[in-house]
Amino acid sequence: MSSTSLGQVAEVELIPDFPTLLRQHQRMVFSIALHLVRDRMAAEEIAQDVFLKLHQNLFSMKSAAHIEFWLRRVTVHRAIDYGRKHRNDPDVALDELQMPAAEAQSSDPFISRRLQALIASLPEKARAVVVLRYQEDLMPEEIAKLLEMPVGTVKSHLQRSLAMLREKLGRTLGEAAL
Amino acid sequence: MTRLEDQLRAVLQHEEPPAGFADRVLARAAERDARRERSLWFQFRNMFAVHRLGWATAVVAIVVVASGVGLRVEEQRRAEGEAAKRQVMLALRITGEKWQVAAKEISGKTDAPSDQSHRDTENQE
């Protein structure tokens, strides 16, 4: 076998089957949707649609990294679309939402709820940037690629969002909380 | 990293989807697959039906064209036969006329010596 064909074989990556991918990424997809639309039922609906779309397009996926990137991108876009369609719907009270994991990890459930409410009040794109940065731990360059926007815009969204969150949270809780 | 960023990370953690989420997705995917297969089968059948109609049309067209061509060939052959017949008849008529002319000439030549001998007899007398 020639070196070229060996290289080609090395490049081929086996992609897990759909049920495995679904179980592997369901938390990520559901959480992105949940943190963007703030409604568990809507988040499940979005997550289901995203996975069905993956199932439909699985043949075009090149690697595990490609699948992860694709899932994040499609979920964010679907969630933003959902948010735009339901902009005039009565907002779900954040206090009614069940966020057990977040409350368990946070030192203060009150701060958690307040912070969730403040994140929810961010504009759609800024909220998507914050979710991808702090939920998915992506770098601004990765977020820029995913959301198809300049890195500078991503950084600016982050800075402005952090400043706003700091200010409003500080106003509610006092500077000591931050 | 600021405390606010830590708090954001804590708040924006991955969450478990509702129980049975994966099963519901798999069921919907299976249902979609089945629907698509049914749809593909239906399309295939339709396509086959269309092809059947196409074949039938093609056969009818071939029969019609072949019949037309056959009729034309037959008509052409008949016309050629008629022409050949006319030529034969013409040839026979010409041959007959020539035969009559020749026969006349032959009979004329046969009559001429008898006249001469008759005249010789008359002179001798």
The span between the termini of chain B is 174 Å
Estimate percent helicity of chain A.
Answer: over 70%
CATH superfamily of the largest domain in chain A, please?
A: Winged helix-like DNA-binding domain superfamily/Winged helix DNA-binding domain
Q: Give the total of domains of chain A.
A: 2
Radius of gyration of chain B (CA) equals: 53 Å
Helix count of chain B?
2
Shape verdict of chain A: globular
The top-level CATH class of the largest domain in chain A is: Mainly Alpha
Mean pLDDT over the residues of chain B = 84
Helix content of chain B: over 70%
User: Any guess at the CATH architecture of the largest domain in chain A?
Assistant: Orthogonal Bundle
What's the CATH topology label of the largest domain in chain A? Arc Repressor Mutant, subunit A
Given the structure, what is the number of helices of chain A? 9
Question: How would you describe this protein?
Answer:
The complex is a heterodimer of chains A (178) and B (125). Chain A is mainly alpha-helical and 178 residues long. Chain A contains 9 helices and no strands. Chain A is globular. The termini of chain A are far apart. The model of chain A is unreliable at 1-10 and 93-104 (pLDDT under 50). Chain B has 125 residues and is mainly alpha-helical. Chain B has a domain at 48-104. Chain B has helices at residues 3-11, 21-124. Chain B starts with a helix and ends with a helix. At the A-B interface, α2, α3, α5, α6 and α7 of A face α1 and α2 of B.
Brief characterization of the structure:
The complex is a heterodimer of chains A (178) and B (125). With 178 residues, chain A is mainly α. Chain A is built from 9 helices and no strands.
Secondary structure layout plus pairing:
The complex is a heterodimer of chains A (178) and B (125).
Chain A: H1 3-11, H2 18-37, H3 40-57, H4 64-85, H5 100-105, H6 109-120, H7 124-134, H8 140-147, H9 151-173
Helix pairs in contact in A: 2-3, 2-4, 3-4, 6-9, 7-9, 8-9
Chain B: H1 3-11, H2 21-124
